[in-house]
Amino acid sequence: MGHHTRRDSAPTIPSNPPPQPHHHNDETTAAAAGEPIDLPCPFGTLEGLDIDDFREIAYEIFFTACRSSPGFGGRNALNYYSSSAMDGGGEGGGMGSPVKEKGVGMAVTSRVKRALGLKMLRRSQSRRTSSVGAAAPSSPSSPAHHHGGGGSPGAAFSTVPGAGRTRVPMTSAEIMRQQMRVTEQSDNRLRKTLMRTLLRLLEFGLLLHPSTPLDPSNQFATRLRDIIAAASTKPIDTSKNSESMRSLCNAVVSLSWRTHDGSPTDTCHWADGFPVNVHIYTALLRSIFDAKDETLVLDEVDELLELMKKTWSTFGINKKIHNICFTWVLFQNFVLTGQVEGDLLCATLAMLNEVAGDAKRGDREDSYVKMVGSVLVGIKKWAERRLFCYHGAFHRGSVGLMETLLPLVFAAAKILEEDIVGFVAVDQDKAGDVSNVTVDSTGNQVDRYIRSSLKYAFAKLLEKGNYNGITFEVQEVAEALINLARETEELAMKEKVVFSPVLKKWHPIAAGVAAVTLHTCYGTLLRQYLAGASPLTNETISVLQRAGKLEKVLVQMVVEDSAECEDGGKAIVREMVPYEVDSIIFNLLKQWMQERLKKGKECLQRAKETEVRSKQSYIPTLPPLTRCNRDSKFTKLWRKATPCSVIVDDAHLSASNEGHHPRPSTSRGTQRLYIRLNTLHYLLTQLHSLDKTLSLSPRVIPSTRHRYTNRRHAGSSSSYFELACSGIQAATQHVSEVAAYRLIFLDSSSVFYDTLYLVDVENSRIKPALRTLKQNLTLLGAIVTDRAQPLAIKEVMRASFEAFLMVLLAGGSSRIFSRTDHQMIEEDFDSLKKVFCTCGEGLIVEDVVEREAETVEGVVALMGQSTEQLVEDFSIVACEASGIGVVGIGQKLPMPPTTGKWNRSDPNTILRVLCHRKDKAANEFLKRTFQLAKRR
Questions:
Q1: Residues 837-856: what's their mean pLDDT?
Q2: I need a surface site. Which of 14, 174, 407, 682 has the fewest CB within 10 A?
Q3: Going by DSSP bridges, is the β-strand pair 267-269/166-169 parallel, antiparallel, or unpaired?
Q4: Longest CA pairwise span in the chain (Å)
Q5: 416 touches 437 (CB < 8 A)
């Protein structure tokens, strides 16, 4: 494909050298041509030539090709007639010509504009006019016509200045001169030289972009380079016998007549090769746009296109190449003029239908396939960049452009996929961008546009609100998310009202896809927020509630849009991962409760570590085992000299002096333990009440992780808080026990353990201790709640019995018992039992008291036995406990261990009774058997 001229039309060399070429990078060249950077020329860029150069060259070639036409120096008027708006006409075929009346340029309508959907500029007079004198125009044989260019294109008419001027139609030559922005001076020079081809064009056509591959060692190419280089510093001698002219002509002619195989040809390629000729021809095609308003196409477009056909043989262009070039020029001008004229887009689509028909034909050259592929890929990529973010590219007023842009993209994609597959494969290999060239289907591609544009619009919301950079307080983050939810809802409504009606023509659930996309976008941010939010706050609840409202709007949008789908919209709904607001709030509440329980456990653990909550801490230390000491002589003398009551210590006297008006000895620490019992019982009561409420709720199902899931059916009081209830009950038991031992061994020690049976039994009986005990039990009943009293009093009873046993068995060196004391001790213990049997109204049943008293009664019974019987019983149980059976000759009885679990069958218990027995036989047995020392 290239510039062709017949053998009888040799190239004409210009007489003067051109100015030096301008060097621009790709962006500068694009800007100089008026092209935005995101719409690169599909034919590539030529370093050294700008749009003005191409326009001048195009006009020169156009003028030369049309020199036989009126206004260009020709003699005959134009007479082009066509029966259709799209006349094939072989290589010279193209857009149809208008129907004309008599006279030059009196077009009534334009079939080209009608076919492309372009509006007429002026209905009353569609032909452009110029002001000339009243004289009649010159005849075709005037000097101007014979000379072929002695004046401007308007020189076909008289131009005498002054009055009497009138408006007459402009010739095609003058229209083209003005449209191509050629000055009258340049036009005059052109008409004098007839065809002024720049040395720069020769360089591009014959050296840089030749049709026939050029051998770098070609001598004619070397000679032409030298001539061009020399012309930049010194004008060429253009005289008839000039050596430089002969050398230049020889080099140009030799390069022009080359063929691939060296065979003879009748065609010369003098300014040849892709993309030089295409750049020149598209510069020529741009002349159809009104110079004053480039969004409009001249009404004379039919006649101008007919004239342009005359350049086809020079450019090596046919109808198919013209159609793709014309398609690009229409689309390019739509972009360059601000994308405001929808008619240009419609005209591009109409021409693209012509290109689709051309592309299906089999007689396609490789250069044509490359050209079509480049143009369509350029159109498609530019359009898709807008469609992939149509929320930013279009608005309510310009959404109509989408209705034309979408079918334009689909038409281009269809041609690329079906008709020029080879080019698409090569283009993919080079660019590695498959998504921008091929599509699966119209619906799927629109689906991609929707999802991409909504993500773009959502990102713009984030950018506008600076949500990405939020590092403030939790409250501010929550407010930002709430505002974002509102803006997202507004964006969804805008999509539904403005864009979805257009997109629904190609996608059945366009609004549904948009709703799903926004749902996913906001959901991502929501989950990120929840991942870093505190367990439960008012701000978090507000965010979740607003997110739930947004989700309902989006789900409703999907449901309404997919009502007519075959599956009822199930497929698209499955893409929406629910926010699960209710579930999240429930889980947050659960997490909040668990955190509070954890803190409660930590506080409880700290309290356990700092408090003494064990009964062992109140039980006195057991004294060492010693023999009972006989009365010394000093003691006997003292007893004779003083009454027995003087021997009793001050503590005993103090307790006795209280008489019948004792005071309770319960300390504040013990009372706090009583209050703690009340708290535990209150918690237990509340759990039972909550458990009953939950058991009546059909939506609440008890946990299946423990074995008592169906306890309510088995008659249990709790099935939801089993572990909590059992823990509280264990705590109640423990607190009751500690409070009882504190009351007896600490608060009441002065009247019980410290004074009972001190020195002798007769003078230190239990009655004073019982009076104080009764007062303490009365205070306990006043503080402790009714349902907690039975356990608390029962533990006081156990502690009292434990204290009574310790007085008998581990009371220290001040306590000495004889066999005769047994009856008094038995009576005292019966009195102690009676206190608990009569305490309150059946708080402790008599059977329980008797069962707890069995151990004490057994020890008291031992104190009534003889020393001999005690020694015999001890020997038997000690041998059995140690496992030796019977003590042999010379073998000693083993010392039994102290377990603290007193029992009449326990050898250590019997041994302690012997140690406290005021008896010679007991003293001798202990000395002989265990070498126990006497008490001091």
A1: 88
A2: 682
A3: unpaired
A4: 180
A5: yes
